[in-house]
Write a structure and sequence with these properties.
The structure holds two protein chains of two kinds. By secondary structure, chain A is an alpha+beta fold. Chain A has two domains: 74 residues, Glutaredoxin (3-Layer(aba) Sandwich); 112 residues, Glutathione S-transferase Yfyf (Class Pi), Chain A, domain 2, CATH 1.20.1050. In chain A, strand 1, helix 1 and strand 2 form a beta-alpha-beta unit. Chain B folds into two domains: 79 residues, Glutaredoxin; 118 residues, Glutathione S-transferase Yfyf (Class Pi), Chain A, domain 2 (Up-down Bundle), CATH 1.20.1050. Chain B is built from nine helices and four strands, in the order βαβαββααααααα. A four-stranded mixed sheet of chain B has the order 2-1-3-4, covered by helices on one side. In chain B, helix 4 runs antiparallel to helix 5. The interface between A and B is medium-sized, with 29 and 28 residues.
């Protein structure tokens, strides 16, 4: 198989890449990392990147989940599955929402995920004050998303890479925390999340 | 003038757009924001940026916000007429640029923006600097720059050739040099130091930071 992905199977970063591969209809092999110690081998150090996910496409190697997704889109996107539109103005609006995910959406959710998944899994106490603040922060962000999504099923109007990049963290909140109300109580956001979870590629990724 | 940029004049997120405009040799009008109340009005939030933030770029009728999205827009539209290639056309080369663009947002920006926030923004508004946050952020950026030191071995730029990835790194580096006492984090690593010197020596950099 030409495409091989190495990554922690539960990580939102790995799942974002898997979702992209599935949206683009691309076959691939997933080589799951289960122990962080295995990723500090010479092979990884030689490639100067101690982190995962990493994608191999034939001889080409690329890491950083967003860079991997962008590479897959630029190489394999076709008319049937457009994740970044060709039209300049439309693609720029998609880029705007990709930036929202990095700047405003991910940071508070990352804190909640770190406290409630990582700490709990490693037997460390959950810092409830951090979770409380992060929930306030993501609440304010989602209030703005509620306005952005007025009359729209997706952030830019049509499904794009920007929407895709949001769903992995959202799914984690639904599946592994008691905080799904942050999405469920905002009607446009709830509709958006429901649309994303209803896509074939999503169901295949999270089967 | 077709291109108008609205923003606070000092912060890296405005200056990275200015640097991109200058690298692409694009004339533009700069509308300086001096009072952040002006970007929190209903009109601004409805028409320019729903989070009430800057920079915002207007290119004719087209309005776009989020500094890195603005930079990408400018590259997509105007690179073909420019002397510089900020994102290569070749998909594999572009992917490596994207990798380093991801480094910038994931590993480089977060600790540096904490240092800048504590030592410059807090100070400006009369709030105390949290030294523990600065100390941790310095430890974090040092580990990141150790990796950059290896990445830059035998190279002047991250991918080998100047790209948008290098451009987006210089804004915070410049703040650290000019407004903090921490420039040693760059200066003590020979490859990183050479890289920063190259970036600060570019015509577009000098024009931006004149």
């Amino acid at each position: 198989m030409a495409i091989k992905l190495i990554g922690f199977p539960q990580s939102p970063f790995t799942l974002g890449v898997v979702l992209t591969l599935n949206e683009l209809g691309l076959p691939f092999e997933l080589d799951p990392v289960t122990d962080i110690k295995t990723i500090k081998t010479e092979d990884f150090l030689a490639n100067k990147h101690p982190l995962v996910p990493v994608l191999y496409d034939g001889d080409f190697v690329i890491h950083e989940s967003l860079a991997i997704c962008r590479y897959l889109v630029s190489k394999y996107q076709n008319d049937a599955n457009v994740l970044i539109p060709d039209d300049l103005n439309k693609s720029s609006i998609v880029e705007q929402y990709i930036s929202y995910e990095i700047s405003y959406y991910f940071p508070p959710l990352q804190k909640i995920i770190y406290q409630e998944m990582y700490n709990r899994r490693n037997g460390r106490p959950v810092d409830e004050a951090v979770v409380k603040q992060a929930l306030e922060d993501i609440g304010k962000v989602l209030d703005i998303y509620e306005k952005v999504l007025e009359g729209k099923d997706y952030l830019s109007g049509e499904y794009s890479l920007a929407d895709l990049l949001h769903i992995a963290c959202a799914q984690f909140i639904y599946a592994s925390t008691a905080h799904s109300d942050i999405f469920e109580k905002r009607l446009n956001v709830k509709r958006w999340i429901a649309n994303l979870r209803n896509r074939d590629a999503f169901k295949k990724t999270y089967a | 003038m077709a291109i108008k940029l609205i923003g606070f004049p000092q912060p890296p997120n405005t200056l990275r757009v200015v640097l991109t405009l200058n690298e692409l040799d694009l004339p533009f009008e700069f509308e300086s924001v001096t009072d952040f109340k002006t970007i929190k009005t209903e009109d601004f939030i409805a028409n320019k940026h729903p989070f009430g933030k800057v920079p915002v770029l207007c290119d004719g009728d087209f309005v776009i916000h989020e500094s890195r999205a603005i930079c990408r827009y400018l590259v997509s539209k105007y690179q073909k007429d420019a002397k510089v290639v900020l994102i290569p056309d070749d998909p594999n080369k572009a992917a490596i640029v994207e990798q380093y663009l991801s480094y910038e947002t994931s590993y480089y920006d977060p600790p540096l923006s904490k240092i800048v926030y504590q030592e410059i923004v807090n100070k400006k508004y009369g709030k105390p600097t949290d030294e523990a946050v600065v100390k941790q952020a310095l430890e974090d950026i040092e580990k990141v720059l150790d990796i950059y030191e290896k990445v830059l071995e035998g190279k002047d730029y991250l991918t080998g050739e100047y790209s948008l990835a290098d451009l987006l790194h210089i804004g915070y580096a410049q703040v650290i040099y000019t407004a903090t006492a921490h420039s040693d984090i760059f200066e003590k690593r020979p490859n990183v130091k050479r890289w920063i010197d190259n970036l600060r020596n570019r015509d577009a950099f000098k024009k931006t930071y004149a």
